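pinging the channel bc i need a second pair of eyes. not urgent but kinda urgent?? the chain im working w is below, pasted from the shared doc
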Amino acid sequence: MAPYDSDDNARAAEAADTDDMRAGRRRAARYVVPVAVVGVAAATIGLVPALADSGDPDLPKVTAQQLIEKIAKSDVQQVSGTVKISTDLGLPDLGGLTSGFASGAVRGDDGSSADPRSKLLELASGTHTLRVAADGPDKGKVSLLDNAAEYSVIHNGKDVWAYDSKSNEVYHVTSAESGGAEEKAPRDLPATPKDFADEVLKSVDDTTSVTVDGTAHVAGRDAYKLVVKPRQSGSTVGAISIAVDARTGLPLKFTLTPASGGAAVVDAGFTRVDFSEPAASTFAFTPPKGAKVTESDDHEGVKSHDRDGVKGDAPKGAEKARPDGGEGPGEGLAGMKTIGEGWNSIAVFDTDGQGLPSGGSGSTGNSDVDGFLNSLGDHVTGKFGSGTVFSTRLVNALITDDGKVYAGAVTKDALVKAANAAQ
């Protein structure tokens, strides 16, 4: 179906409605997906294509501005359903890398396989199914199904629980005040199309084209298709399509295609959705007997114990970890700044001269990890000296030999140009 807004008309409408659109985006951005810049390639997850039903519904015409406002005004408090997820970042075969990382490199900062951060690599490739549910801002659940195993993150009032049935480990974050656990919880994984859509819409500015491109059926619902594209050259993002529920304004499907073409990098959408109230038992959780439980909060640090009451030692160094990303050993991106604007923004930070792990003095000590990093690398030189660019279909990162990092959803040439300009 042809777009409702022609290119010329769309540009004129966007220019006239810029202030209103920005206000709408601020209201639409209710949830932040806090993904570290270099970790974006591993954290970005998507959905198998072709989840939309056949046939386009006949809906009243709307402008891009009206659709953004519809998302902003959406106040869906209760929802449950199934989200199918797959990833096509163009990464090489990970082979035994996952098990190597699980031994410490990408286990959570607190050493628990149940820490949500330990799941990032697992979601970097393949196909996954999520069950999601929410009942207001203080109750939510996301379950990742994997054959006979299940991994779940449950938020219920002051408590956030994460449980890995495969390892029988539990990760628990709590707060003295109801609802405060969300601030102290591990950084959440993006789980629904709304998570992705809110992050994109809050970043839309004058460097962006936003149009309505017809309608679709998604998970049995009538939806409008909002299309977001960079106006700038140099971005690795080609276009982003968001299917918006015509009745509630809730994003039902999110598709990101790269500028290089081919399959979508991210394609996240509901295959089943229900707006009735989830059962209270959905958000109830008690650690199974015998499970290893890792407690994490700002007041008592990190403790590990067995469910039967026998206490054990916390993971080495865990008492110094900062899951909230504050100053200290848990930091990692200290001094980060952003250069450029819009879709061409590049994050820059210094690793204190550590440079690139390459099997020598900068090696991680894990041959699988070092091999994986080197398989992504492309040696480059310039006024800045020399370094290596790690590439995926979406995010690229330049690590110079003196330890500076330039990363963003931009081309390799854009990273080299930025590094040269910094000299």
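so The chain has nine helices and 21 strands. and The two ends are 49 Å apart (CA to CA). — does that match what u expected or am i reading it wrong
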